[in-house]
Fold 4-amino-4-deoxy-L-arabinose transferase-like glycosyltransferase.
Amino acid sequence: MASSSYSRTEHLRSLWPWLPLWALAALLAIFSHGPMPLYSTRTLAVAWEMWNHHDWLVPHINGAPYSEKVPLLFWMIHAGWLVFGVNDIWPRVLEVIFGGAQLVLVSLLAQRLFPNRSWVAKGAPWILLALGYAFLFGLQIMYEVLLAVWVLAALLCLTPKPQRAEPRWVLFGLCVGAGLLTKGPVMFLHVAFPFLLGPLWNDWARDNRVRWYSRGVLALLLGGALLLAWALPAGFAGGEAYRQRLFFTQTAGRVVNAFDHARPFWWYIPAIPALLFPFSGWPRAWAALITLRRPLDSGMRFALCWLVPVMLVFSFISGKQLYYPLPEFAGAALLIAGAIAALRDQRPALANNPWLGTWPLGVGGILFGIFLFVLPVLVSHNDLHGEWFDSTQRYSRFFSVVFVLLGILLLLRGRGEMRRLAFAGLVGTLALNTLFTLTMWQNFDLRPSAQLLGAADAEQRPIGLLGNYEGQFHFAGRLTHAIERLYEGKSLQAFAQEHPDGVIVEHPEKLTNEALRYALLVQPFRSGWVVIWPAKSLADLRAGRVPPEPPHPTRVYQVDEWRFRALQ
């Protein structure tokens, strides 16, 4: 066999079995239910408005320029729509592709950074694929999943190859530019510290500091130029207010005194165990990290130069969300895999100690399975009560078997401990997602409301909404006009007087008898409701008048047993 052909065969073998296993789980999970409000539906709404109005430069949401996001993900969605037509299948397939690309890239990074420890390249993708939060968030049609691909690709360009130690600067700049076009200036934060601290982990950077920093800055400027190539014409096309938000208000408003998602400095610290589950519950991983000693190899130094300063900066930034550091999950996988590999080489007694195995997670899985099995009894005796418990108990016994079997798997000892843990983590997360789909998804599925609003929009009937609109109806309803934001009082009355044939959407926490009598549609949404009214009927009720009897009864959708009892 030719050497090049042999190399390709070896590379394909290195992807087996973690990549097909993850792809199967991701496809099953992402197509088990529709796009999730409000993350996925908002992204699709922006893509739909750009597509529908043929505005490929400036993203729009609900008829207004959308300064919060840059357009690369929308363009990639449009590319698929150009071939397959407008649908929500292609955007979800894209997210699966992005997730698979992350696994391949983290494997390649491990090969470059740990050339003397081949186990890291085998273990890191297993760790990354099993992280429950990353897997579930990867089911959202969101920008961070694509951003993580560009971050990993950019960092891969900085790492040395056996035949070339100097980074691929042009590719590095292009990947940075692609990341900037995916999520904006935050891309610089994700790659800045591995570059700035290059001499601490990269021998070539330490020996060639001037070339490292000078060419690296030029590459970063190339990435910035790609962003400006879009931002400058978009800023002028979007108008003065959009230009001001795009270039100044948006980024600054998230860094200091955030206008959205403001959290205290320490907010990420208690979330780390949940974000890194199930490996945060593996004693051997903690033992490996605690027993790390200098000198650290280049891969471990790289992971620390990436993770520690980035997380510190994210902690100082006022606006915080659990998915903001999503690209760093791959760095955590490298760190854990590298620490385990060092433990295996340097401390074989700890690496084989059965008390550091996965037995705590195994016991936890069995106990959770027992809890799911007895949940119907607890609910029927009113020992547990609430929407989540009442809904999931209908199928919980079927899933209890899954978690008991996974728990038994984790109690096994011997070779392949990490892969068993990763497999159990992935299957357990998929099982929870399936349980959610069977029991709770009906309270998130806005298609009935979106279809009614789409029909009203097609009839040129104006639509108003009480409260803040997040684009959740635009794509599913294929709306072509903006929804007007309304407020109680004069705003609502003026809308109804000006548009007597219009409809109004509200999101009450509790349902009234008037809604069941006069509204066009009622359906549960999260812990509250969506109610769609004839504008005149709602205005009459708010003014204390009795509306005329509706020609058709109110359509009530998907009210489960818990909601039905709440209506009584």
User: Anything to note?
Assistant: The chain has a mean pLDDT of 92. Residues 209-238 form the longest helix (30 residues). The radius of gyration is 26 Å. The chain has 28 helices and eight strands.
